[in-house]
Each structure stands twice: as C-alpha cells, then as structure tokens.
Design brief:
The complex is a heterotrimer. By secondary structure, chain B is mainly α. Helices cover 74% and strands 0% of the residues of chain B. Chain B has two domains: 5-55, no CATH class; 63-268, Orthogonal Bundle (MetI-like fold), CATH 1.10.3720. Chain C is of the alpha+beta class. Chain C has two domains: 2-233, 3-Layer(aba) Sandwich (Rossmann fold); 240-350, OB fold (Dihydrolipoamide Acetyltransferase, E2P). A six-stranded mixed beta sheet of chain C has the order 6-7-8-3-9-10, with helices on both faces. The longest helix of chain C has 18 residues, at 166-183. Classes of the chains: A mainly alpha, B mainly alpha, C alpha+beta. At the A-B interface, helix 1, helix 3, helix 4, helix 5 and helix 7 of A face helix 1, helix 3, helix 4, helix 5 and helix 6 of B.
Chain lengths: 297, 274, 358
Amino acid sequence: MSHTANRDRRIAAVFLIPAIVVLFATTIYPMLYALWLSFRNYDLAKPFIPRIFVGLANYAEVLTSKAFFHALITTFKLMAMTLSAQLVLGVGIALLVSQKLPGMALARTLLLIPMMISPVIVGLVWLFLYFPELGYLNYFLGLVGIGPVPWISSTQWALTAIAIGDIWQWTPFIMMGTAAALQSLSPEPYEAARIDGNSRWDVFRYVTLPQLKPVLVSLLFLRAIDAFKIYDIIFVLTKGGPADATEVISLYIYRQSFTFWRMGVGAAASFVSLIIISVLITLFFKQMQRGQAARAR
Amino acid sequence: MTPSLREKFLTYLLVIIILVVFMTPIYLILVSSLKPSPIMFSRPPRFIFTPTLQNYYDLFTMRPFHLQILNSLLVALGSTAFSLTIGTMAAYAVSRIKHRRINDVAFWILSMRMFPPIAVVVPYYIIFKTMGLLDTPLALIIVYSTFNIPLTVWLMKGFFDEVPEALEEAAQVDGHGVIATFFRVTLPLTAPGLAVSAVFCFIFSWNEFLFALMLTGSKSQTVTVAVMSFWSSDAVQWGRIMAGSFVILIPGVIFVLTCQRWLVKGLTMGSVKG
Amino acid sequence: MSSVTLRKVVKRYGQVEVVHGIDLSVEEGEFVVLLGPSGCGKTTTLRMVAGLEDISAGQLEIAGRVVNDVAPKDRQIAMVFQNYALYPHMTVRQNMEFALKPQKLAANEVSARIAEAARILGLEPLLARKPAQLSGGQRQRVAMARAMVRTPKVFLFDEPLSNLDAKLRTQVRVEIAKLHRRLGTTVLYVTHDQVEAMTLADKIVIMKDGHIEQVGSPEEVFAKPRNLFVATFIGSPAMNLLPAKVAVVNGAPVLVANGFRLAAPPSIVSALDPGASVTLGIRPSDIRVDEAGDYEAVVEVDEYLGTEVLLNLRAGNHELVAQVPAAARPAPDRQSVRIGFDAARLHVFDTQSGEAIR
C-alpha cells in the first residue's frame, strides 16, 4: 500500500464516513421507510388494523386521481408565476442597485432581509395584510381606486396572493445572485461598447445578459427546487384552499397523510414527487458542474 | 459611466419605491407588535400612537414564550453543533480526496438537502414515535441536521478549497499527521467559514416550521409553531403574533446586516460566485 | 555512498506515464538542480523524493535506505515550496516551532535552533511577525529557515525563486548559495530558469518529457551538450542551428551548409560519415566578427545591451545571432560585416537523432 493513497483512505475513513452514516440514517432510511409505506395500507388513526401489503394500489390511486394532478398543475402554475416575476424583478432591481452611487450598498443589504425571515412569519405578515375586511392591503389599494380584492377568500385570487408573498420573499435572492454576478463582470466590454456608442438596451441585451445567463439558470433552478417544496406560506395563508385552489403537492401529501390519515397514499405521492424533484436536482447539478468546468478553464 | 442628474434622480426614486415595498411588511411587524389591540386595524392606519409593550408582556406571561425560545435555542444550537462537526469533517474529505468519484459523493450530500421535507415527515413521525422521541428537542436536532450537514459540507468545501495544499504538504513533510495538520493548520485558516456555516445552520433551524409542527407537542414546541398557534387558537391575537414574529426575525435580520457578503455563498451552494 | 539515489523511477497517473524510468544519484553534500521546461516532470520527480507523490515503479534511496513506502516525515528531508507554504496564522517563530514539533525536542534545543537559523538568515527582527507582514524576500528566507531548523539530510527546493522579482531573485540566489556552502547539506533543487541552475548547481540534470536529457556540471552541459535539446535549452541567446551535409574534400570531411564550407572539429573527424545530414550548432559568442572573417553577412538589427551587442545577421540563407563585446560593435551605418567560425567550437549533431556526434 502506497502511503499517499493510504492518506486519502485515512481522510475518507476519519472525516467522510461519519457524515455518510448520519445522512444515511437520517435521510435515506426515512425515504426507504416512505417507500415501504407506499406499498402498504397504513392508517395511523387505526393503529390496530394490520398494515397490509397492497402492491401498487397506492400508486395507482395517486396517478389516476384528479386531485393529485390538480396539485401537480397548481405547483407548476405557482412555480411559473413566482419564477417569472422573481426573474424580471430580481434582475431589474439588481441592475438598479448595482450602480456605483452612494447608498446603493445599503439598499442592497436591506433588500436581503426578507430571505432570512421564517416562511411562517412571511405567511403571517401577508395574512395580516390580506386579512378579509381588516387587512391594510385593500385599504391602500382602495386609496388608488382598486379593489377590494378578495385575496385569500376567493379561488380566483388565492394562488396570486400566495405568489405575491413568495415573490416578496425571494425576489431578493435573484437580485443578490445577479448583483454578485454583475460585480464579477469585467468592465472592458462595457468600455468598448461605450466607445462604439451602443445603446444601453443593446449593451444589456448583447453584453450583460449573455454573461449573466449561466448564473441566472443556476438561480432559477434553485428557486424551482424550492418552489416545488413550497409549504409553510400556503399552510399559513390558505391551507390549500379555498376549495383546492392552492393545494400544491406538499399540501396534497399533507392532507392525505394527516387529514385523511392515509399514510400509504401520502407516501406514494411523496415518492412520485421525489422522482420529479430528482429530475430538477439532476438538471441543476449538471448546470453546476458545467459552471465549475467553465470556471476551471 | 457617470449618470446624468435626471438619471440619478430616477434611480433613487425607483430604489426608494422598491425599498418601501420590500420593507413595509417588516415595518408592519414591528409597528403592529407595539400597537394596542383596539387600533390594530384602525382606518386610516395609525402610525403615530403611544407604543405599548403589552403584546410582548402577554407573550411571556399569558404564553410560555420564553420556554419556547429556550426550546428553539436548544434545537438550533444542538443541530448547529452537530452539523458543524460532522459537516466540516466531511467537507475536508470532499475537498482533499482526489478520487474522481468524490464529486459524486459531494453532489449526493447536497441532494439530501433538496428533497421536499413533506415527503419524509410521515416516516420521521413513525420512527420517532417508536423510539419515543416525539416532542423532544433531540428529534428536531436530528431532522435539522439533514439539511444543515449538506449546507455545512458545501460551504466549508469552498473554504477548504482555498487553503493551499502546499501548507498541508509542508506540515506533512515536517512530520505532522493527518489529524494534527487538520486541526493546527487547516481549520484555523477556515475560521470565518466555520462562523458563517454556524450562523446559517442556526438561522435555518430557528426559522423551520413544518418539522417542528409535526414532530413536537406542547413540551418542546419551538417559536415558529408557538406563534402560529396564536392564530389558530380561539381568537386571533394579532398583537401577540406580531410581537412573537418580531422576536423570531431578529437573528435573521442581524445576520443580514452583519454578514451579508456571505449570503450569496450560503444560499446558492457555490453555484454563484460571491 | 550517495545521499539520494533514484533507480528507474517511474510516475504514472492512471494510464499516463509522466516520468519514464529516471536514474539519478545525488552525492552527499552536492547541490543538484533539476532543470527543464514546464511539464518535463522535474517537480513530479522532486515530489516523489519528498514522498508527496507515490513512486509507480523503481526505487528511491535516501541516505542508503529504500524509502519508496516511507512517509515524508520519516525521510529526513525538508522542503521549501514554490509559494513558501508558510502558515499564515502563525508568526515566523511559530512557523519554525511547528515544523520542529514532531521531533519532540527539548524546549531549549528548539529555541537554540530557531535562534541559529534566524541569525544565519537575518530573521531576528522578524520572529514575532506573521507572513502577511513580510516582503517576498523575507518570506522566502523564513521558508528556508523553517526547512533549516529541522537539520534534514536533504533539502528539497521547488522553484523557490519563481515568485520574486528579478532583482530580489539575484539576491536570494546568492543567499541560497552561501547557505549551502555553510551547511554543506545535500540539495535537490527544481527550476526552469537556466541562470539559477548554472549559478547554483554542482550538477545540473536537464529533463524533458519525463526523461533525463543530460547530467553534468554547468560547464559540461554548456560546453558539451549531448543533444540538440540541451544545446538550445542552455545558453542565452540560444545556439544558432544550421542544417548541413558532410562532404569529403581532399580526404578530409567538410561541413557544407548552404554557402558555408566549414572544417569539421578535429575531435570528431573520425566520427563523421560522408554524405550524412547533420545540424551545426554555433553559440552566438563563438561567431567572430572581424575583417578576417571568411563570409559576408548583413546586420539586420543590432541590439545594444550595455556590455555587449547582439547582432542579428543574415548570411546567404542563414539567419544567425552573434554576440560581440560592445566595443567591437560595428558602426551603425555599416550594413555588411565579415564573420568567421572556429572549427573547434562547432557543435555537430546527427539531424535524425538529435544526438551530438563525438
């Protein structure tokens, strides 16, 4: 045994194994448990009924249920709304506050605060703003002649209301990533464009945007992965309602498991969602590795 | 490029509007937490009033909020300590081992952070129930480590990558072993990384809601669940909700104001250079 | 008994072999420089000696003991790294203490050694400073001091001067030479800079593509390069090369190079095959520029360097560089000069193999 390979092996044994063991025990094991559950008829409310093996029945139910597909569509609808708004607003604000003017650094910092607030608190403060009859949002909109909007009490508006809360919290994320990327851009192409007399829009469109693209793709992937998991803010604002207007995947799983106590069905839905998000995660990792390779060059 | 006066004016105007929009909810939390109940929803909204600490007083007398703060602190600090230990070591391994599959291991660890919590809540519930760990801080410490360890691994990997390997080779040639080299040479140089990782772990644990809701009862309830319970109890206690919310958002706000330059790294997992 | 011996040492990374069976012996107290362009395997070789890279095949001895599988710390070596590898969070003194720690010496021995090293290298006023507060040259000296306190059998240097500016490099070079004279410890030193190699080495090992091209004293590798690579790599400005054929005139071989007819160096006359294709090598300093020269050349550009002048000449089809003392500089308006060659100073190489004919 050579001593340098030995060293690698020793580092692996001492340093890496604990994390792998812990993650297996705390993550993979529960996932396998969920997999096992998904083949059973498991009703937590009736603990004495045997947890019989039902084969793929739970999966069959999930994959043929309208509610599940509705939840899936709602999830992606919400994702589309929040991601597009966050992208446009985030990049726009980043361009604005990246200018070298006094006070901009402070503005950039203040704008980061929403991200570090617990999603429950975000939900609660928007609930405070949306609150039927009492909420201040409709009062202020009324001052400019809009509304009142039945934010969380109508099936028509509830998803938008949730999207607004999420956009408020996470637009700063795109802003932050974009601003960081903007700072790392070399000034030379801008100076060249200035000498050549290109318009600002052209400079943005042909110089800035192409250079930002890889960063923006990564940021959007991270947002998409998060958006797929969205739970807290909906739980606070609408609990998936009114009716099923805001029932996203997480809420569907929650309702199957804890309202109907059908753990097997909930687990099957969980597994389907794990597969979907695995695709997103894999795509994101591909993107990240491309980024690493590009940086290494 | 020097903007003209008009452009400057427009820029500042826009930035101020954006700041007002984004800061209003936070401002509302603070103001409402200091408002007496009768004028909570007065029309027009009252921004000038005699502030009262009644809501905060109620928070700690009518409710055991201090105990819930203790629970949250215990869980957050416990998970931070555990995740930092395990995660930092793994990060060092991932950063130093040259095997070509080590990147796959790193990505596998990261993926553990990205799966939806709701998918594993039921198994956790059942497992902890059989182990008798439901409604204990230990349950949450374990669960939070599943996302704090990957976070630490990726953050610290970035810091370890920046420590020149020649430093470790120098120590190795001088006769120091793997462990001594790690503790005496490498780790001291990544102290800022440790601090940042610790704060991130703490805040993510402190802010967490779903697992806390599902896996705790009255005994080890954390602050987020407690505040939510003011809403679902018989009458909506907006004053207390806002007071509790304000307490909860303090650590996050302090973090942003003091170490905002690390946020990019921590939140993008190194996919964006900070 | 030599201090370091490599026998058929090979380094492979997976399928790729980067060092192809090197044989080398470094005598006790000798200063040996591994010299070559980047990617020639010199640093890899040094790192194998240090124990930072595994040896894929072959055998490495240090002080008479086979150390292939011995950990770096047990090889009785000390190494000075390219970027110095000073521990940034430790003071100069702590850097040295930390290097000594594994030897578990008595406290007074440790401070004695540090004091000695600090005195020799002039670091006494800097002991309490951290690396960030030192200049490049000071850091370099600390790195040497840190290696020195361990009293190793062999010093290993990995391009230690490459991060210094030109002036400092000259200074530190002299200090390294002095230090070696003073301590008499065996040194293995890697560089890509031929000036460092020529000035410091007792023995230069010229490497290319994982092979050793030549081993010899600085005088040897300069005066008797074994092949075209060594001939052109050593010496600045580089040796002039002319393609030529061996002809026989009056029973004696003559080297014919497109317009030039040069007598063969007497020492190799017997080794020349008539009709063979050879490459002539002429060092710029070996070209005579005076009225007595046999050939006419045109000065295209002359580069004045103070003590000497480089003449870029065209003679027939040939482009040559000649190095002459500034005093012998042809008048600027003199476009045409006479040049001549000294047969004894010609280098002749087999064109096909690139090997010197001797």
